[in-house]
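Sequence in, structure out. Go.
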Amino acid sequence: MREMSIDHQPTLIEKVITINRITKVTKGGKKMSFSALVVVGDTKGNVGFALDKANDVASAIRKALTHAKKHLLKIEMEGSTIPHEVVGDYGAAKVILKPASEGTGVIASGPVRAICESAGIKDILTKSIRSNNPINVIKATIEGLKKLKGASNEKPTTNE
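Output:
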C-alpha cells in the first residue's frame, strides 16, 4: 500500500457521489455524454469537489478528480468536530452542521457524509433541508464549511 505519492503529497480519499447520463438532442440525432460528481479529501482538513462532463464515464471521473485536487479547501476543525454550528445555503438546498461530542460519529446523508469523512471530521450532526439534489447539497455543505473558516480567521486579523 502506497502512503506517499511521488510528489510527496499525502494520499487523498476519492469518492464518486453521482454519475448522470446526459443526452443532447441535435438535428443530427442524440449525443450522449456523462457527468461525474466527486469529492476528494486528505482527512486532515482539506476537501474539494468537482462536477465534470465527458463522453464516457471513466473520462468524466478522471477529469472531475483532477479538477477537485486542484481546488482543495482548508476546513477549520476543533479536535474531531467543527468549532460551532453553521448553516450552508446554495440554491434550494440548506444544510445545518452542528458540532458533536466525541464518539458520536458522522450523522449525515450521502453527499454530506462524503465531504465530512474526506475532510477528516469524525463527529458531526447534520440535517439537509428542502432539497436532496446531490450537487446543490454538496455546494451548500461547502458554503457552510467556508463560513466556519471565515469566522475563525476574522478574529485574529482585527486591529484596534
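Check: The CA atoms of residues 104 and 123 lie 5 Å apart. The chain has three helices and eight strands.
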